[in-house]
Write a structure and sequence with these properties.
heterodimer, A: 248 residues, mainly alpha, three-stranded mixed β-sheet, 8 helices, elongated, B: 155 residues, 2 domains, 4 helices
Chain lengths: 248, 155
């Protein structure tokens, strides 16, 4: 069995990425509202996070392009942008910050997994040449038969999304759930890089170094976010922050 | 000390909840009540503060376009000859525009949250929403136009 992808006269990539982000945000809104996060918090967090996700994602592609100017969406840039957006929103609103952050971090793999449909149809990020079962055959520009790297990406990240949602709904400590999701995402994304056509066969390629940097950056941002939120809470309610019962 | 129960719709039913929530009669959807505006603050002064934030936000939204125009207009064309220099200039301008865009959104949201009554902030919010919609359409159209752009994507 092989998947044959026709050649498109226009790339559906951008549209699918935006649709994936929209689906991810809808799920995040549902998770936040289910936990009683205020409508205003949800609205402003979504607005700011959308702006940060899109701008950091596009900027990462622009900054990474060497020699020629590339404009597109970078999944890794989007992850960093999303965490930054939620962080800034939490600083402004401080309403159930743990749940807001957990909802967005849990839905990030869903957005990435669905966005891979765009890559699959556009023919980018394809796997190494392969002619076995489930191979993806492209016609035209990317003509050839390749390993279904995008489909494996998609399945892995949708499974990670399900795991993430289970973690944030079952675990009482949402911050721990956020860190577990981020810690699991980085090595999965790192390993999936080996399947890509542009992996040069070395132990750690340039792309994998970028994944590690983005993973470390996301974890650092999450740690800074938690630290800042804790300091802010201690500032507002010293008794609660001092480990007391919260009685003023 | 936050309410961490994801499936719980009522944040005050937990016995471990700090008492400041209870004292301020915290309700879901009313986080403004937990941090009310000082009652003694003059409405005129609040309006002034909101307008200042909104004007700075608007300036940050517009400034990069003006700077980009000035850069392109005032640039010595001989310096713009090489492809590398033009690309780095575009990268700098784009970085500036994006950072400034995020900052303008942050200020607008601060104005909306702190000065809920400000009409200017409300108008600004809808203008920015329209702008981000246009931005998304432009990026999608650009990517659709450059079919080959995806091959250079870092993923």
């Amino acid at each position: 069995m092989k998947f044959i992808i026709p050649e498109f006269s226009w790339s559906p990539y951008g549209l699918i990425v935006i649709a994936s982000v929209a689906v991810g945000f809808t799920v995040a809104i549902f998770l936040m509202r289910r936990s009683g996060v205020a409508k205003e918090t949800v609205l402003y967090t979504c607005l700011l996070t959308t702006v940060c996700t899109l701008t950091v994602s596009v900027m990462t592609t622009v900054l990474q392009s060497k020699g020629t100017l590339n404009i597109g969406f970078s999944g890794l840039g989007a992850a960093v942008g999303m965490i930054s957006g939620v962080f800034i929103s939490n600083l402004i609103m401080r309403d159930k910050s743990d749940i807001v952050m957990a909802s967005f971090v849990a839905t990030a793999p869903l957005m990435y997994g669905l966005a891979k449909t765009g890559c699959l149809l556009a023919g980018c990020c394809h796997g190494k040449p392969y002619d076995g079962p489930f191979a993806i055959c492209y016609q035209g520009t990317h003509g050839g038969s390749y390993f279904p790297a995008q489909i494996i990406d998609m399945i892995s990240f949708i499974l990670l999304f399900i795991m993430g949602v289970m973690l944030i709904t079952k675990m009482k400590n949402k911050t721990l759930a956020v860190f577990i999701i981020l810690i699991v995402l980085t090595p999965v994304r790192f390993l999936l890089e080996y399947l890509r056509f542009y992996h040069d066969g070395s132990v750690i390629s340039q792309g994998q170094v970028t994944v590690l940097i983005a993973g470390a950056l996301s974890l650092t941002l999450a740690a800074v976010w938690k630290g800042v939120m804790r300091i802010g809470k201690q500032h507002e309610h010293p008794a609660a922050g001092a480990g007391g019962s919260g009685q003023p | 000390m936050e309410n961490n129960n994801m499936g719980n719709n009522n944040p005050v039913n937990n016995s471990q909840e700090p008492s400041y929530y209870i004292q301020q009669q915290y309700q879901p959807g009313s986080y403004y009540q937990t941090n009310p505006a000082p009652a003694q603050e003059d409405p005129e002064r609040r309006k002034k503060k909101a307008n200042t934030l909104c004007f700075i936000s608007l300036g940050l939204q517009i400034l990069p376009f003006i700077l980009a125009g000035l850069c392109v207009a005032g640039l010595n064309m001989s310096e713009f000859q090489t492809k590398d220099s033009s690309n780095s200039l575009i990268t700098i301008i784009l970085s500036m525009m994006e950072s400034s865009n995020i900052a303008s959104w942050v200020l607008m949201i601060i104005a909306r949250v702190k000065y809920k009554e400000s009409v200017f902030a409300k108008v600004l919010m809808w203008v920015y929403i329209a702008l981000i919609a246009l931005y998304i359409i432009a990026v999608v159209a650009f990517i659709a136009w450059c079919v080959s752009s995806c091959s250079g994507m870092p993923g």
